[in-house]
Every structure is written in structure tokens, then in C-alpha cells.
Q: What sequence folds into this?
């Protein structure tokens, strides 16, 4: 059985969320709920895989400050509070699931949140 890539694992987490879909945009996989992006799979200039996700106010500074090897301020969306997370070394997929789930909840419409209890 072939080894799952970080994108395979991320895809599994994201698409398990209610009404989540994958759409390629800017030549990268993005994950959306009702047409709004909640996660993006990226590879940096060194081909290191990672994700960019929405984060609650103040979380970006806390996460990046606590573990700058794992978390970073992504370009383009970092000024809006999004957080980047590297997926290439000792990835804690339970932590990725928390970051992705929180981003989905920040993006999903209130009615969907109420209906899904996600």
C-alpha cells in the first residue's frame, strides 16, 4: 500500500467536514465550505508541504510564538490573521485536525454550524 502524502491526509480531514469541497485555485488545492476557502495546501520554495488556515483573533501570534518551526505567518493572508502550519516533520495530525476544524467553523455559515454541530 503506498504511503499517504501530507495532501492525502489533509484532504481526508478537510473533506470529512460538512459541505466541504476541494477546488484547485492558483494551481493549489483549496478547501471550501459554501464557496469560501477555509484551508489551502501549499508547498514553499523548498518544497516543504504546509497548510494555511483561518485562525481566531490572536491565535496566529500565540501559535507562531510558541512553535515557529511548525507555525508561520503565511504571505498574502497572514495580515488577516491566517496561520500557516508545516506538514513535513513529526506532524501531529490530531493538531492539524484542530486547526482545520477551527478554520472551517470560522468560515461556515451560522445555519450550517447549528445544523452540523461540527
A:
Amino acid at each position: 500500500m503506498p504511503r499517504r502524502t501530507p495532501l492525502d491526509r489533509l484532504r481526508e480531514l478537510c473533506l470529512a467536514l460538512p459541505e466541504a469541497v476541494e477546488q484547485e485555485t492558483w494551481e493549489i488545492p483549496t478547501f471550501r465550505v459554501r464557496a469560501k476557502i477555509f484551508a489551502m495546501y501549499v508547498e514553499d520554495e523548498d518544497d516543504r508541504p504546509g497548510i494555511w488556515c483561518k485562525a481566531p483573533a490572536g491565535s496566529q501570534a500565540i501559535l507562531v510564538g510558541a512553535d515557529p518551526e511548525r507555525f508561520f505567518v503565511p504571505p498574502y493572508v497572514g495580515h488577516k490573521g491566517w496561520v500557516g502550519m508545516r506538514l513535513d516533520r513529526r506532524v501531529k495530525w490530531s493538531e492539524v485536525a484542530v486547526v482545520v476544524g477551527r478554520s472551517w467553523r470560522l468560515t461556515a455559515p451560522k445555519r450550517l454550524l447549528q445544523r452540523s454541530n461540527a
